[in-house]
């Protein structure tokens, strides 16, 4: 029963994130294909002191990390796999979403987005493993 619930939560959260990436926050179809394949190029722009904007920084840096943390918990539970395979599944999903953004011109395909998303996933996975280890330790004492 719990396994089915985790499947539903993962599916629902994936659809929510896809909606955010393609339609929410005033996204409209652009006129050009936008992409960045140079690692850290976009991140450097957000951290540029001369052009620093707190809301842009929070949305683009912290948002791209925080929104993807739940995948670090849900993917290993649903697929019963360790970090490497979980990250591979996550990467496949993100690459598909980034390509859809590019092809529909509803955003950009950005290497930095993937790096930040993967960081969020990894933080989520680390938290999941810490909580799991703590729970197992408590259960062994009983």
Task: Give a quick rundown of the structure.
The protein is mainly α and 142 residues long.
Describe, in plain words, how this protein is organized in 3D:
The protein has six helices and two strands; from the N terminus they run H-E-H-H-H-H-E-H. By secondary structure, the chain is mainly alpha-helical. The protein has a two-stranded parallel sheet with strand order 1-2. Helix 3 packs across helix 6 (111-141), helix 4 packs across helix 6 (111-141) and helix 5 packs antiparallel against helix 6. The mean pLDDT is 93.
Q: What descriptors fit this protein?
A:
142 residues, mainly alpha, two-stranded parallel ribbon, 4% strand, transmembrane helix
């Amino acid at each position: 029963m719990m396994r089915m619930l985790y499947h539903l939560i993962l599916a629902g959260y994936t659809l929510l994130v896809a909606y955010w990436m393609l339609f929410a926050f005033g996204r409209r179809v652009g006129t050009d294909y936008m992409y960045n394949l140079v690692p850290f190029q976009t991140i450097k722009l957000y951290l540029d002191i001369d052009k620093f904007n707190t809301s842009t920084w929070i949305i683009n840096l912290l948002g791209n990390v925080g929104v993807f943390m739940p995948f670090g918990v849900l993917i290993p539970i649903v697929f019963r796999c360790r970090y490497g395979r979980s990250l591979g599944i996550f990467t496949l999903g993100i690459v598909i979403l980034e390509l859809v953004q590019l092809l529909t011109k509803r955003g950009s395909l950005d290497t930095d987005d993937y790096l930040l998303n993967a960081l969020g996933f990894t933080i989520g996975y680390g938290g999941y493993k810490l909580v799991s280890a703590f729970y197992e330790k408590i259960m062994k004492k009983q």
